[in-house]
Amino acid sequence: MHEYSLVTELVEECQRRAGQRRVRSVTVRCPVTVDRLELKTLFVAVSTEHHMAGVRFEIETVNTPWRCTCGYEGELPPEAHVGHLAVCPRCSVVQPLEDVLELVAVDTET
Ligand SMILES: [Zn+2]
User: Fold this and answer.
1) Which helix (H) or strand (E) holds 100?
2) Mind listing the pLDDT tens digit for each residue in 94-110?
3) How much distance in Å is there from the Cα of 85 to the middle of ligand 1?
4) What's the gap in Å between 67 CA and the centre of ligand 1?
């Protein structure tokens, strides 16, 4: 599962940044098209496996313009994306949505 490896990488990066300190909260940024509930559920599962249970997980969403090969560029209306697929509002081509998960901040105990 693709998201699982993304979240695993994220948690490992948090641990690298935290070093010996305990992580209190993690903030990430992702496109609005990402299923936030799924992301949060995965984060809880992966962070628990990595002995980071109880970490607060904040998700910031960004409205990144989406680009199609036909030249369309803009926000995707909610009905134009289904799961991990986007349907171009102009040419109706179906494309996979990119999973972008950006680590914004790792807050640790001092
Ligand atoms: Zn298009």
Assistant:
1) none
2) 988 776 789 999 999 98
3) 13
4) 8
